[in-house]
Queue: 2 jobs
Job 1
Amino acid sequence: MSLSASCESVSQKRTLSSLLAGRVVKRPKQGDGQHLHEATIQLLEQQQNICSLLREVQNPDLCNIFCSHNGEQKQAESEGISSAITGSLLGDLWKWSLLTTGVPHGDNLTLTQSNCCELQDVLYCLWPAGGLRRQASHLGVPVAVLSVKMVLDRLMEITGTEEVKEEEDKRRELLTSSQRVQLCVLLESSKELLSQGALCPKVLWQEYRRDQRLPKLEVVYHLHFYNILTLKYILESDEGVRLWLVSQLKALCGWTPPQGEEETKQVQQQVLSTVASVLVGTGFELSHEPAAADRRISLLCSSVLDDMLFWLLDTVEKTVTLQSAGTGAKLWIQIFDVSLCGVSVSGDALQRFFTHCLTQTLTYKPRLTVSDAITLQNEWTFAKASRLLTSVFCKLAVIFSVEQLLCHLQQVLETHEVNWKHVLCFLSTLLVYNPCAQPSVRELLSRLLSSAFEGYDLENMITAFLLARQGALEGPGIFPSYSDWFKMSFGGCSGYHAANKKSLVFLLKFLSDLVPFEPPQYLKVHILHPPYVPVKHRSLLMEYVSLAKTRLADLKESMEDMGLYEDVSGAGGASVQPQCQAVQDVEKAVSLFESTGRISATVMEASIFRRPYFLTRFLPALLTSRVLPVKADARMSFIEALKKADKIPAAQYSSYVESCQKQRQQDRSMVCSDTHDDPLEVLKIQLQEFTELLVGGNDGEMSAQLSRISYTLSVIFPGGPNDLIGQTVISLHINTPLSPELHVKAVNMILRNFCQCLLDASRTNPPNKQSLWASRFVSVLLGNTPLLSSLMHRLWDLFHNQWSSLSPAHLLGLGAFVVHLHASTSHGPLVQLIPPILPKPVPIGEALSSALFCSTHTNMLFCVRLCVAAVCYGICRGDSQQQQQDYIVSSLYKKLLYLIPRLLPEARRTPITAAGPVSESQEENLAGLWSSTTDTSSTWRKTAWYLWRHPAFCQLEHTPQYKLLFSDWLANELRVQRSEDALSDPERQEYQQWACLELYLPRPEEQGGCGGDMKSLCSHLLNAIMNQQLSSQSLEKLDYRVSETGTCLPDILSRLQEFVYEMEVTDLSGSRGSRADVCDFLFELVSEKCSSTATSASPSISIELSLEHTLNTWNRVLLALPAVLLIKVKAEGGRMTLECNNLIEHVNQHQRKVCSPAGLLSCHLTAHLLKGVLCASVRCGRSGEEVNKAWSQISLRCPLLLVSTVHWWERLSPVLLSLWHRLCDGEPVPEQLQRLTDSQNWACSLRRGLPSSPVPAAAALVLAASLHRAWRGCGCDNQDFSTALKMLQPEKGIQYRQVLVFLLFLCVSDHLSGLLYPQEKSHQKARTLCNDLLPLLVDSGDWLLIFKSNEQGVYQSITMVTSDECTRLMPWAFYSLVLQQSAELLQRAMCCPGFLHTAVLCYISLLQLFLEGYTLAPENQMEPFQILSHSKQFLLRAISQTPPAALSSSQLRQLESQYTDLDPEVAAALSVHLDPHSLSPEMDFL
């Protein structure tokens, strides 16, 4: 191209070279050299322009002297200037330049190569346009032509200085520092020429490109930067530049500057960002009416950017990690940073560019089909995706909202063929970097499903399923599991498919089409959680289920591997391995067995209906070899129960036992990882990187790093996330340490990193000003159940056993960790402690708080420090009261309510009051609280005292779940070990009195207090004391040290004594103010307690033991209370009388059931009750008379107390008579008490065989009990006592007969006690005495009445002596005694009235006992079943020998109806031998 076509100032057609070659120059004379030298110096001193001067007087080639690279001076041409003159001239010029710059020089200074270049730069800086114009005029060429020639020549010299070096070494994409300086000087001068119209940019570019030369990209950048030649103009004017530009960009991105050239790195970034800005601005700026040229250049710029994006995406396919990608791709990704390329580009253009790039990325190389996406989707999670790809998505998404991004995604999906891998990775990146994106994604899925079912559109349908599954793959902390989404969308009658049959068919057809490509875990979800289908269309669903099961069978993924408790992972990538599922089933089954004591129905059903899974999966997981504990644990007991139920094959069980024995002899094997890289090292690096990101404050990158950490943890803790129906329950074995060393190290690493992160984050901001890093960190852990289980075990061990090794920083970090675990309770699992010290599974925070003991001084100090740290963090983390409640664990808060007043007496003087609304100084309060918590110089006392007065802490105490109830306070206090308490005995007494009387007594009942009622206060104390032993037993499971030292039970018992006495003496009970109220209150309370314990209609052993414990504890309390409170004194007829109804009812209903031995109260309890009667009688006018009346009531209605009194009278009489004389000085002993003494003397004289003394005027039961006591205490043999009994002939009178019958009952009770408790040696004597008594009574029917509990009569009350269990066993005792008698005595017995009826009823009762499984110890080498057989034979013989008149027709019909089902043989015998038709009419009425 000629210059005339490019510059209007050029009219000649000659080239620049020809013009310069034809210049005519004046030739100076040879003798003018000296003169010229002097004139030059003079000009320089006058600061004249050197370049202009040379152009006027010399050939332009002379300028080459200054530009020479080899430093040699050129020979003067035809002008005649000699080499000496030239050298002299250049030397003077150089000296002048040094003088002007202030640099000293010597006379020997020579003009070197570098000096010449520097001089040239000086000359160009002083180069005015005027000189060029004069020179151009002198030459006869346009000034633009001359300036272009000079600029191009110099430009080529600058950029071509290192061409040789570049050929030898690797190609350099940017200029050197010296080249860059020279180029900038040149361009600065050129810019000056351009401003004065002396330079034409178009001519400059045309001349440069004339020989098809292309500059380096940095040269173009500098031309653009100095506004000499813009990149846009270059692109518009030269079509060949496009390919060159793309190659230059790729080369520049892939080139790494030499080490140490920081300036070059900055220039590299500037070049790329500037070029990108020009391309974006030109390609995506909108104009109202763009011309064709503008549209062309816009498309050209867009295509360049597309080529670079495609190059980047190609790199993505080849690399996985960001580090392996090299610098090229990473550099180009940086140009998407808004801060770099958005400076010179409008916001609209930038949005259009990012939208265009996002579209291009999502649609790049759409080779993958939908079936490929379904199959490979598990490999496209965020953690597994290319870091390059996720970085691109992050850069492109930063300026858009989540809604905009999802809307664009939907538009792309509807209008383009997409790359499914990129689409799904984009969704994962969006969810990971934007935790708030979940609702928007769910809304998108809802729109897609609605659209799909409205138009039966398969594309929207498959899109929704793929997106939902992709979100679920990122874990429950980011998106709901697939099964939850599927159930929510299709599990109910309001699902998208439930509108009509067509929609249902559409869904099932869609699911069926997916079956050949579905991963097995999704098929399992569809089978276990099928879509809602009306009954009439059930067959359609069954067709799909059958197809899915067939596919699972083809994949060798049997439904048997799904586990017993539906532990299906639909969100964790590959499905849970069958072995892992079986392990989870075993843990759940063992947990259920431990809590219920029975093998769960699920396990029993699986052993029958799912036998393959039971034998090949469940049992191998259960029978894993281990070192068996000395004491059987729940797992061992469960295995034994299965073995007894014949559910474990004998060979498999034997193999298990052998392997366990071998296991005991060798060390446990280490847990190994299958990965080439050590997962612990990977986790360590990832956690360190997370800490660095936290300090940098990059939330998006932190979320991304947490996803990678989650993936690494899934390698260390395999098993996949849980996807249960309901909430997951983790078994926390509190006495079992973690065994795999790998797990221990990983957990320790996680906890240390969390503590470090908290410290780093807290250095700059309080918790409420920090990001959500901690919540996201914990959410990652919650998604992995094995990991969470290991964490729980480690935290429990730290809190319970290793707390002394924790530093304040550890306490702060672990406290915050527990807070965030608690805050995730809504979607976190529950924890079941094993042994079950808590009755049911509880949230994580509550479970961990139970590891904190408050029983000793050291325990209390650790507990209060940890709780202060956790509660302070929770308060500072929440900005409102509701948020604070979400973060604060109620049990930790309650521990502070208990401990702070206990350890800080000043807190008792500053009770928590209801604070009003938080003031504007809330931020100050929070900042002060947090600084007090984190201040290393502060003590826990200062922090606790600050917290105690903090408004937010005070507000929480008035929230129901954060109230420390009086019962909770008492339970805590009763666990304190007195010998290791932080308080001395006087201090503890003062503290307990303050808590009871000042804190809880006036507090309203709805707030956990007593409402000012002393009754309520005493009721709480009494309940706590009675519950204390049960709680102590639970704590013994937790820590054996609890029972080694005494608790504060004596202190609380002392408080109860104080307050009951105060209620009695000062009438503070709040009702009528009489002692009767105290008596009623005490017995009503214990009655309610016993009733609540024995709630079952069919009492079990556990209920009986619990009732026994309750009453034994109550007896301890009762003995500590004043005896006078147990007897009610009331006014009747103008006088005070004793009322023993409460006492009698209590003994008959409750004490009778727990006597040991049966039928006998303890001596201490008996004495205390009688003391109460004597002491209360003093309040009456006639004490002796009231005592006699009371004893008469006791004799008639409370035979147990009567028998016990007679039994212990030898020990009681001195105490009671001494008390009577103290209370009623001078009054005679009450008659009834005297009769007790007389009866004892009579029985003793009878035992010793003395002459018969008159029978005392005492009740028959008193006499019988006296004889029984004399017999049990006698040292003589039974023969002497039998002789003594013959003196009591029943023929002498009814009283004698009653005494013998009562005595027989007492002996039979002893005999039963011997059968129930074989260790007692007295049952042989009891049976012998029964054998001696039977001949005396056999002719009378009275003795039979003691075996009929439902018969009314004089002997009815005797049944209230012994326990209900003994009463049930009276039929056993009947046959046990009868079968040992002689034939003669039995014949006499059969003739006794009512004998057959009694024998038949006893046999019925005996048979029912056997049917209920009740057995006794063998008696006389006879097994229990033999007794039943012999009893039946005796009964059949008695029926055959008894006359028909022995039973009335009504009795016979009743017995036949009972025997028909129980024993048809006996019923037939009754019918045959005792035919009711043979009875006379006179007898039928009987």
Job 2
Amino acid sequence: MFLVHEGSRRRTGVMRRGSQSQGPGHLGDAVSEGGAMAEERPPRLVDYFVVAGLAGSGGAVPEETGGPEPGGPLRPPRPAEPITDVAIIARALGEEVPQGYTCIQASASGHPLELSAGLLGGSQPTICYRRGRDKPPLVELGVLYEGKEHPKPGFQVLETTPYSHSANLAPPGPGHPRTYLTYRRAAEGAGLHALGITDLCLILPSKGEGTPHTYCRLPRNLNPGMWGPAVYLCYKVGLAKANTLVYEAELLGRYPEQDNEAFPLPESVPVFCLPMGATIECWPAQTKYPVPVFSTFVLTGAAGDKVYGAALQFYEAFPRARLSERQARALGLLSAVDRGRALGGRAVRGRRAVAVLSRWPAFSAFRAFLTFLYRYSVSGPHRLPLEAHISHFMHNVPFPSPQRPRILVQMSPYDNLLLCQPVSSPLPLSGASFLQLLQSLGPELAVTLLIAVLTEHKLLVHSLRPDLLTSVCEALVSMIFPLHWQCPYIPLCPLVLADVLSAPVPFIVGIHSSYFDLHDPPADVICVDLDTNTLFQTEEKKLLLPRALPRRPYKVLLNTLTALHQQLDQTYTRPEEEASLEFLLTDYEAVCGRRARLEREVQGAFLRFMACLLKGYRAFLRPLTQAPSESARDVENLFFLQGFLKSRERSSHKFYAQLLHTQMFSQFIEECSFGSSRHAALEFFDSCVDKVHPEQEKPEPVPLVELEEPSGSELTVFITPPEEPPVAEGSDSAPLYCYDGFPELRAELFEPPQEQPGLSPAPGPSRSAPSSPAPRRTKQEMKVAQRVAQKSAAVPELWARCLLGHCYGLWFLCLPAYVRSASSRVRALHTAYQVLRQMESRKVVLPDEVCYRVLMQLCSHYGEPVLSVRVMLDMRRAGIVPNTITYGYYNKAVLESKWPSGTTGGRLRWAKLRNVVLGAAQFRQPLRERRQQEQALRGARSSQPVIEALGVLEPQGSPLSWHDGSLSDVSLASEDPAPGGSPGGTGMALSAHSAEALDGLGGQAPKTGKRQDAVGTPRRGIGARLQQLLTPSRRSPASRAPPPEPSDLPLPARRSPMDSLLRPRERPGSTASESSTSLGSEWDLSENSLSSLSIQRSSERLSDTPGLSQPPPVEILLSSCSLCRACDSLVYDEEIMAGWAPDDSNLNTTCPFCSRPFVPLLSVQTLDSRPCDPHGTPTSAGASNRDAPVPGGPGPVLSDRRLCLALDDSSVCNGDTESAPRRVEGGAWAYLSPLVLRKELESLVENEGSEVLALPELPASHPILFWNLLWYFQRLRLPSTLPGLILAACDGPPRAQAPSPWLPSEPALVQVRLLWDVLTPDPDSCPPLYVLWRAHSQIPHRVAWPGTAPAPLNLALLEALLFHVGFNEVHKAIALLLDTLGSPPEGLHLQRSIYREILFLTMAALGKDHVDIAAFDKKYKAAFNKLASSLGKEELRRRRAQMPTPKAIDCRKFFGAPLEC
């Protein structure tokens, strides 16, 4: 099933693989790619299509040859014909050399030789050979010992001489096995360009002769007897041909015609497409065309980025008319005797190539596509032009991505190719094939080449197979990871660039073996023949032996490679099998999976060796700690070379001495010191270094390179060929396209690209504002953080610290936007540094180093190197070893920032002047404080009678301060109780023991004193408001401590807070002190202002009393309390945190009561009291509120008569004003775990830049992220710009310069309150006990509870519960409440647990500052265990009487004090 994509001529389909598949080839559930998957289209697979060859379509070929003329010592001309026959003649039997044969009578160095010489009865065999083209050439030789082995398949045994005698090469006798030559011939019809044996020679190792370069040596001795020297046969395989003209290749065509700005087409592409040049050859007329040759190449840019190319070389007819007489004579087309007479039976052929260029090494797909184009050009006729297939493939075939992991391309009904998403690996993507490296070289030679690359030798790799060169050379430069080859690197070198072999610098070059037909290799170059598995090196440039490597790592590497080398034959299938559609849909993944695993194992073996080789290198890095000099980047200043060398084993010092002085090691140290684009890969290598143990003789059980298994269900995108044009009405058929060769590309026949709205830009660095660093974690850091979270989830305290660490990580992700919006960025950086110190003091578990890294990067950006050094010292003091990324940012900050002047004289004088000014200010401070005390004393004496009567004034010497928000503030103004105490007869008893009860519950007990006379209720309201007015807890830090009161003031008597607990009905309705609403008080976790946020010590508690004089224009209420629908129970913040999974993709938490997962919600209410203009837009608080006290500052003194009288207004209650109606807006969003939130925030910053965190559109465009960030920042009292975005979103763009977020001098425009309980009560649920207590106490609540309370939940029950709690009889309180509620499901159902109901009731009655929750938890736990002995733990849990889990308690402990309700 295929669905046509709208607006395009192509048809695409998507098949989902997995358990639902109905068999091979079944196409199920196809959907349009343009629908579900067009929103994020990946880049195209191919960027350019190129045609290269001999330029000039009809003109004459220039006389001057443009072919390669490389330098170097010349060899004799190569033979024109291959060897087609080999024979043995017996000289002792009188046999002569047959006609046309050549006899080998001397060794390679000219030494005379005779097989079985000096033996009686010997036949004196001699080897002869014949050249020609009358039959297929020989391609391989062998030696057979008769009786010990059987001939290889396809080989023929040379048993007799041309004269029918035995061709045995061994001497006669029973002790010598009969020895025969064997040979294998090329297949019939192999063509003119079939590889064959071009030369033979014999060598005598006893004479010091070695295998000639590019020759293959047979392993069997031809003279196995005891007499005579050992003789070995060597042969050379090559391409023997004559009558060839070679020219430099040129560009014949390309698509597209315009260069991509990010990726222009290199000018040298044609010579890489035809590395042996564009040739014109003369063939016999009946010669078949050879199979096209596939080759690959790599182009390296100036920045080190790679461009991968794949070319297909083929021959086609070449017109004789373009040849001059001289060229025709050189090709053998004219008779050498009779000038001008053309010879018959000859054909002229020219070589050209088609190629594609890409940024990904998908060589197998490129080979299939280019082969299809070649076949298309030599067949036909076709209804579509060749250009349509080229443009269709380039425009519509994307690179595989997570959204499209498998792409099946149907180029024709018979040609298919399958693209699979590359394995996600932290290693750099390359075209390396470690399997081909191991198969071509073997384990020992592979280790030898590793030494050559690590010591930067000149390395020349050659083969007759050009497609093999790139894969092996890429593996050579990849196996030294993390080192990066810095010298010239040309995996497939054209002959026109062969002069690089004479360069005086190290290089890795791959070249076609035919280069050595004319030239000898340079003397100082190490040559590796991939066809013969041999290495050639001279004595003066001899490599170190493998024993110079570290002993145990080398032994493990060699053993691993040897074991893997034995498994290679089982991983390959025949090419014709891989081309079938059935194979692509069934066995492709299994076969490719086996190859990929084996490939990763080989690569992992080299990676382990490199990790052992550089183990502990980070301990020898030298960080910059002072102003940099000109030699700051020298490796001696960045790395302690001698210390590192002495730390290695002595036997490998010679190898390490060469390694440490290479260019790539110096570059590696510089990248580790200053960062680079490879920082993620280097950080992964550091993790590998931590895993390996060089002293072990076996590899680690866990592989270093983890291969991700394919998921059970994947999507396969089907891309079909372009649609054929419809046949016009009235015509017999559509136009046909016929080709007699690869055509000249015509621009009008290419399909135009279809505009896709989701087309992604070219790969490159993630979009991020240049003015703000993009603080992201690498994949390796994410994996480590995931493992840390999983380990921490099992330990309650570690889990709380882990969540806290991720919360701080969220704040540092927002730090660039916070610093950019600050008026003083230097002060903002120091604020961040204080946050960092606060984290260290709280022993936060940091899953990564992003917090330090962001601050260091900002220090570099804003020129604060000294602060960056302090951050580094703090890291080391905390025992954190910076990884590669952090270390690079640090050194970059120190190196690139402007340091303070080196002269200290000026700074010293300024410091002296500063000290003088500060000293003068200190002298004036006592005078200013004395003046303020006198003013306050005069105001206090003027209202002394009223205050004394109300019992409001708090003396300085009181043993207990009651102005901190407890319920006892209201009890001071209550009426005298009736004789006998409170109803029920329990008041006097509780009053007598109130001090002891409070001491056991809250850790503090007030001293009871004389009661004050009763005053009228209205005056009690004024007294309560004056009490709040004098509360200094919300004043600025400078004025937080109240001035000492005069000693002549009377000390009003205090009453126990428990005296008022049992008399809630005696409390006046107008009394609205903060103490009476301790759970509902406006307690904020920050300074509740866009411009008054400050960092405080973790031990310093914020005040519970907000400024009462004027409410903020905008008030935000947040609550994370969520309802579990499964059991109808409310789950609170610490319980939600404890139920989160250590997974950054899981939104669920676990209900502590029913253990079912659910998604918690973060509820939000916005209360806007700003007056609206005629257009309905809220106006900001300006001059009208100029006289209002600052909510975050000190309240008005009593001498300010106007403001004091304003407090007596009945509309003021508990800090809320009702002078202007409030507009209420609400909503609920998912409450995210810090792990999930961090992942989403990183994705947002990476895609849209960090500026998005300071845009007014953030609350509307990303509400989940915004409200969750606001919740966490307010919860931890961290400064941010988020509250200001709420006003900016309502009022439009902010003013020119936003105020500094940490200065407390600006008025608070936005107040954020974090509530412990729900924002909106459920009308169908029973009200909680603390709300009933407030109702009985006539204390206004934030929200009027709907409905009526059940009869059992009366005042007597509340008083009894408080009585038991006050006397440390919590088990009785639990039992009483359980008996009152009854057994479920018949009894009453409260959405809050028993623990939560009793805790909230106690805090509402006593005031939360008088309740030590830790002590309450201990007593509740003891009470639970006591009741469990009688009722059973399961029954108590069923009735939800258990206390929170240890994980929830630790989360509440580490995230701060309890919130308000």
